[in-house]
Amino acid sequence: MPTITQRIAENVAGVRQAIADAAARSGRRAEDVTLIAVSKYVGVAEIDALLAAGCRDLGENRPQDLWRKAEQLGDRPIRWHMIGHLQRNKVRRTLPLVTLLHAGDSWRLLEAASQHLQQSGQMLDVLIEVNVSGDVSKTGFGPEDVEPLLPQIAQLPHLRVRGLMAMARWGGTLDDARRDFVRLRELRDRLAASCPPEISLHELSMGMSGDFEVAIEEGATLVRVGSALYEGVET
Ligand SMILES: *Cc1c(COP(=O)(O)O)cnc(C)c1O
Questions:
Q1: pLDDT of 1 higher than 80
Q2: Between 20 and 30 A from 31 (CA), which of 21, 22, 37, 105?
């Protein structure tokens, strides 16, 4: 029986190979795509296995889990990514721990984050989450709501916008996912033309275990992969 560490190392290697292959298919280099290893299903042992396999960028979707793990793993070289919805009352405890906030999903959150960052003096990289699929259950800006807000977002102190984030529709096919990812990339390309200079839209955070290869083919620079890393590991 392979150990957890061996199993996870094999899974990470497989995902990295798939990332490289998909990048090659879209005429890009594997280094242009960052693997965010989503650790929300697992604990310290599996996270240490991820680190041993070279994963430093880890994603959590619940603030309380992020707080707990950041404390348990405070001495490890981890860059934490907040990939889920962040309520404003959790901003204060969460932002100091985070390298990149993926789910910048409302004006009120961005404003609250900026206010907190001004007090603490911290700068934060953030992505604007866009609801490209129109799923009512999903958070994020409507695709047509981003452009009018960009000048205001650009004026928020201490936030550096790096790009856009989206999820494919629930229960869709791979073709549906591809359409959602194309929508995000086309929105980015359209916005980039008129974007305030304070804002970069370079990063596209899209793609999970079931669809990250399609996302890379459509331009993802950050993929958020969880379950594929834990195949054969009880979580
Ligand atoms: C859980 C989660 C992922 C990873 O999903 P998998 O299908 O397990 O790879 C990616 N993004 C977000 C926002 C998530 O909550």
A1: no
A2: 105
* pLDDT computed for residue 138 by the predictor: 81
| Radius of gyration of the CA atoms of the chain, in A | 17
| C-beta 61 within 6 A of ligand 1 | yes
Separation CA 31–CA 211 (nearest Å): 19
Ligand 1 touching residue 208 (CB < 6 A): yes
Ligand 1 touching residue 225 (CB < 6 A): yes
Question: Ligand 1 within 6 A of 226 CB?
Answer: yes
| Cβ of residue 81 lying under 6 Å from some atom of ligand 1 | no
Cα–Cα dist 52/48, whole Å: 6
| b/e sequence 153-176, b meaning 16+ C-beta within 10 Å | beebebbebbbbbbbbbeebeeee
Tokens 């907040």 — which residue? 82
Closest CA to 16 of 219, 217, 213, 220: 213
Distance 155 CA to ligand 1 centre (A): 31
Closest CA to 188 of 103, 130, 134: 130
